[in-house]
Amino acid sequence: VTALNRLKAIVGSHGWIETPADVARYATDYRRLYGGPTPIVLRPGSTAEVASIVTACAEAGLAIVPQGGNTSLVGGSVPTAHGGEVILSLERMNRIRAFAPSDATITVEAGCTLAAVQAAAAEAGQLFPLRLGSQGTCQIGGNLSTNAGGSNVLHYGNARDLVLGLEVVLPDGTVWDGLRALRKDNTGYNLKQLFIGAEGTLGIITAAVLKLSPQPKAVETAFLAVPDVDAAVALLNLVKDSAEYGVTAFELMSRASLDLAQARLAGGRTPLPLEAAGWFVLLEIVGGGTLNDALMALLTEAQDRGLLLDGVVAGSLAQAEEFWRLREEISDAQTAAGGSVRCDIAVPISRMADFITAASLAVREIVPEVRIIAYGHVGDGNVHFNPLRAVEAAPEEFLRHAPAISHVVDDIAHALGGSISAEHGVGQAKRDELPNYKSPVELDLFRLIKRALDPRNTMNPGKLLARS
Amino acid sequence: VTALNRLKAIVGSHGWIETPADVARYATDYRRLYGGPTPIVLRPGSTAEVASIVTACAEAGLAIVPQGGNTSLVGGSVPTAHGGEVILSLERMNRIRAFAPSDATITVEAGCTLAAVQAAAAEAGQLFPLRLGSQGTCQIGGNLSTNAGGSNVLHYGNARDLVLGLEVVLPDGTVWDGLRALRKDNTGYNLKQLFIGAEGTLGIITAAVLKLSPQPKAVETAFLAVPDVDAAVALLNLVKDSAEYGVTAFELMSRASLDLAQARLAGGRTPLPLEAAGWFVLLEIVGGGTLNDALMALLTEAQDRGLLLDGVVAGSLAQAEEFWRLREEISDAQTAAGGSVRCDIAVPISRMADFITAASLAVREIVPEVRIIAYGHVGDGNVHFNPLRAVEAAPEEFLRHAPAISHVVDDIAHALGGSISAEHGVGQAKRDELPNYKSPVELDLFRLIKRALDPRNTMNPGKLLARS
After folding, report:
1. Within the 317-336 window of chain A, which residues sit less than 8 Å (CB to CB) from chain B?
2. CA A166 remoteness from chain centre
């Protein structure tokens, strides 16, 4: 109680939440799969308050779960079932601290939503290119802590590629001010990249200097039906080989995943009839004045090579947004459908078709009637391969097979040189699987680093690595 | 002696060098500024041999300096004056292990020269975009250990941005096999980025999976005279704002730096008369069929805005290579001239003109007669700001002022939010300056990581951090 009172005093009366009804949305993830009891939710308003909280918690032996928009798909942003962690929400730290358009940089606090960062950049005619379905809710601190990917990685890189500097509160409460705005700096270990993607287990990211890009002069968006995954990959290579434009998105979607999304969008018209094919691609390219000509030439070439069954090019921004809405609706539609297993897989791009074929077969051996909700950022070798119960099957019944499905899909990805978590991270969901796919040498290095930076294991314990 | 015999047995008779005359070129850096005594030079032929060496050295308490092409500008690849380190040259580990053009990846051993990697990629019509003056000599393992920059960073990123996976021999002799070929992989701490740029102080990079890019369809190279540094930065922003092409290089060169290079190239004709301006820019852009038109439009626009005094566009590949030869000759020409201080500075791009003005003034207060050899990758906010003795001044006399010059230039860069080593690293040269410009928090983190991974401090001791 003394410790909690000290924490309350640090953040002031608006800065903490204890009422169970109000705590609930912080203590449970948005899919209601993960969560646990917490003594208190703290909402600090400044880096100094975060530092004081971390110091107080260290002294009281309290563990901390840092939380952004709580959109984690792996239970990374909520307590473990074990519970007892203080939840430290960054949501009140949502200021743009500095904006330097002439340097194409912006300095933001961790609690800014991704959409707010995008909007601030856009106001000055620039682009912050990270693009996620959850961008209205997720926060940039969480995006960086999890090295978010999304739909623009192909052209602009992952979240870690968009960061010039960081401010981090370390596990002992000291503040590392690494808010540099430099494109090049070779003065020591790259601490920044250690904290990015560490899922809050090494410290709390409180602010960042982000790289901006010029807004594209012209954008073309096309919705394409392809014969199969092999054709999609061949199309990708054809698209990437152009000098006339940049490829900002190449999203593959299985017929079944679009069926789900369409149903949830009240069955509106899809850009192409979904009966046309088993696989579809959402393509976005950026360039200059002759972009539309270049796209038309590309599509003709693709058709000649047998890589394209049909296609439609967005005639307006509104139509392009419709294409994207369909793509972005898949994830929520699947959650709403209930009874699915999420596998966030990466493989070398040349193995994508092999992976999908082998994984689909293997899953059907476990559950013959299953819908393969496969979609994602195939341009990066990343597919969300999510087996979903048949329409008539009960979710609980299907989910009995979840561990077996997850296991076999991850095994196949691993055997093809792949990753069992391309962009979602490890969190609680994949933590106990990690030792099956990582060498003891690599896990030892993880533990060595964790112990060096967080010897008391108070920073997001039980995520990524088991509580030891 | 027993330890040395064990080391000799590991590498076999071709794998070691003891004769002082033969050892010399390994034990001294190429500018003959750094170096120290070594008991033996080891040239292992495989990762297994490297691992055995590291294990044997750990057991014998012998320190190791890993060495690539020995082109370090900061004494990173040779023993300290203190000496006693075994030199482990990777030069015999120069195989291309795998090449997957359809995934745009190549797996190479650390001892491949950068030029060999470039050539292997080019053979399959692809591009490994790292470009350095020393590319015929420097080795990829050294490039990664130092996070090399060079002339293509603007478009393709630093060395660390070109790496998908690594193989590293750790300080205890175990091998971390992180040779993954994935664009996305969020399964734990980013170990790869910790070893990249660590200057061999955390382990020895023995192999890497590198990302390749499509070769540009068209390249245009222009040699431009600009009114001043402000105009150069404004020109950079104008160039970068185009959607018609990518900007692969934007190299600024002071008149004095070109004078040196021209003299060393036997005084051949320069692309523009050097009397035309105080500052010149080497611009390279890549794109498609209409690239030349786009360049011409750009240059017209730049001239209208008063950003350009004169310019010439390379009419052939040979002419473009001439432009580049002039640029790349500057560094060696300066070394040959003797008596200069190298400051490898980065600042936010908008502060570049302020930096050069302030630093030039400050240096002239110390040594009124001085040539400002300033050149480099201004597109990345990086300039090599190298005061050089006046023609009539004796090198030794001038170099008495080196510490004061270095200090004041670094101070100015730091005050502008900059870095005292943008791409050269820390090594021995900048080690003792680091504490003036890094916070104790950051240095503590460096030491924490160093101690966790290399508790005996046998990996390149005395580089980056002081021997403790």
Report:
1. none
2. 19
User: Tokens at residue A245, please?
Assistant: 């434009």
* Residue that is written with structure tokens 């509104």 in the block: A318
Structure tokens at B22: 């033969």
Angle at A264 between CA A260 and CA A269, to 5 degrees: 85
B275 touches chain A (CB under 8 A): no
Q: Which of B146, B185, B451 is the closest to A422 by Cβ? A: B185
- Give A449's contacts (C-beta < 8 A, 6+ positions apart): A194, A202, B189, B194, B449, B452
DSSP E strand boundaries for B8-155: 16-17, 41-42, 64-67, 86-89, 96-100, 105-109, 126-127
Q: State the residue for tokens 């240059």.
A: B299
CB-CB: which of B170, B419, B446 is closest to A185?
B419
Contact A186 B149 (CB under 8 A): yes
Paired residues of B387 in beta bridges: B372
Q: What is the pLDDT of residues A122-151, one digit of tens each?
A: 998 999 999 998 999 999 999 999 999 999
Distances (CA, A) of A129 to A119, A155, B116, B306, B391: 11, 9, 34, 32, 50
Nearest to B367 by CA among B336, B342, B400: B400
Per DSSP bridges, beta strands B86-89 and B64-67 are: parallel
Number of Cβ within a 10 Å radius of residue A96: 16
What angle do helix axes B352-366 and B229-240 make, rounded to 10 degrees? Answer: 160
Return left, alpha or beta for A417; rule: phi > 0 is left, psi -120 to 50 is alpha, else beta.
Answer: left
Nearest to B186 among A191, A381, A423 (CB): A423
Burial (CB < 10 A; 0-12, 13-18, 19+), residue A459, is: buried
Q: Where does A34-187 have alpha helices with state H?
A: 47-60, 114-123, 140-145, 153-156
Per residue in A153-175, pLDDT (tens digit) is 999 999 999 999 999 999 999 99
Q: What is the pLDDT along chain B (468 residues), one digit of tens a residue?
A: 799 999 999 999 999 999 999 999 999 999 899 999 999 999 999 999 999 999 999 999 999 999 999 999 999 999 999 899 999 999 999 999 999 999 999 999 999 999 999 999 999 899 999 999 899 999 999 999 999 999 999 999 999 999 999 999 999 999 999 999 999 999 999 999 999 999 999 999 999 999 999 999 999 999 999 999 999 999 999 999 887 899 999 999 999 999 999 999 877 789 999 998 999 999 999 998 889 999 999 999 999 999 999 999 999 999 999 999 999 999 999 999 999 999 999 999 999 999 999 999 999 999 999 999 999 999 999 999 999 999 999 999 999 999 999 999 999 999 999 999 999 999 999 999 999 999 999 999 999 999 999 999 999 999 999 986
ipTM: 0.96
Rg (C-alpha) for chain A, rounded Å, is 23
Q: Residue A309: count other Cβ atoms within 10 Å of its Cβ.
A: 18
* DSSP code string of A169-209: E-TTS-EEEE----S---SS--HHHHHTTSTTSS-EEEEEE
Q: Is B381 on the interface with A (CB under 8 A)?
A: yes
- The answer to whether A347 and B103 are in contact (CB under 8 A) is no
CB contact residues (below 8 A), chain A span 131-150, against chain B: 146-147, 149
How many other CB atoms are found less than 10 A from the CB of residue B409? 25
**Chain B CB contacts of A442 below 8 Å:** 176, 178, 188, 191
Which residues in chain B are contacts of A287 at CB distance < 8 A? 243-244
Cα–Cα dist A123/A350, whole Å: 39
Give chain A's end-to-end CA distance (angstroms, integer): 26
Q: Is the dihedral of CA A29, A377, A166, A128 positive or negative?
A: negative
